[in-house]
Amino acid sequence: MNSIGEECTDLKKKYDDCFNSWFSERFLKGDHDDSVCSSIFKVYQDCVKNAMKQQNIDFKEIDKDVLGTDNEFKVPPTENS
Amino acid sequence: MARYFENTTTFNFSWDQVACGYWKRYPNPQRFFNAKSVKIIEESIVDPKEKVLVTYTRNLGYTKVMSVVERVEYRSVGGQTIAHRSAWIDSQVFGFSRAIRAFGVDRFRKNCTQMVNGFNHVLHAMFPRASGAGGGGVGGGAPVREALREMRDAAAAATDRAKHNVLSSVNTT
């Protein structure tokens, strides 16, 4: 999958690789130290942010956390469960 | 008032496998991305101890026309993974909101099958020995988020953000 910024796709691939091995080999095994990919993440994120600016993507909407907050939509009540 | 839709599907893969495969679910034969259209954002929380993965996806922009919010919870049950998907579809186009909501729900429902098939395809490729006889799972499970095909086109942004969120959540753990 390519990045939303064409120029970030290479960085994305590098980060994806790092992330995926960190996720399966460390994180899922209880190792929460995420420093392994932090430097590539930073570079990649800067690239994506630039691409987002160019595409006029609303940062406010992106930075807003919803999951795990009161703003998260709730499942409507039903008879069962 | 948003229309609500939900379903539950089973993946014949362990939760760990589903969680690992989740980040690699695109591209797949059922879902590839081309046209630039509506962007979506995804947040996710991974709890490796309880084995729960929750994803929450919404579209950015055009939300007055149609907003789709999808929440999927993947839980470990036995050796399998159960995905419970909820979706809220709304529209505020005066005079058409009802029709658009109905269209959105219908579209979403149809897309669910594709999402599940696509994710299963990726899982089978990643873990070929697993669930050999299981086929595509019991009706599918679900990977993802989203709703309108168009709204998924820009999932790259969502994936980017999801990963960021995973990292953030790790920091606060």
From TrEMBL, chain A:
Keywords: Disulfide bond
GO MF entry, a single one: phosphatidic acid transfer activity
Protein name: Similar to CG30108
Single biological process term from Gene Ontology: phospholipid translocation
CC per GO annotation: cytosol; mitochondrial intermembrane space; nucleus
Lineage summary: Eukaryota, Metazoa, Ecdysozoa, Arthropoda, Hexapoda
Keyword Disulfide bond: yes
Sequence similarity: Belongs to the TRIAP1/MDM35 family.
Organism the protein comes from: Papilio xuthus (Asian swallowtail butterfly)
Catalytic activity: a 1,2-diacyl-sn-glycero-3-phosphate(in) = a 1,2-diacyl-sn-glycero-3-phosphate(out)
Automatic annotation (TrEMBL), chain B:
Pfam families, A to Z: PRELI
GO cellular component terms attached to this protein's record: mitochondrial intermembrane space
Domain PRELI/MSF1: 1-131
InterPro entries xref list: PRELI/MSF1_dom (IPR006797), Slowmo/Ups (IPR037365)
Alphabetical list of PANTHER family matching this protein: MSF1/PX19 RELATED
Descriptive protein name: Protein preli-like
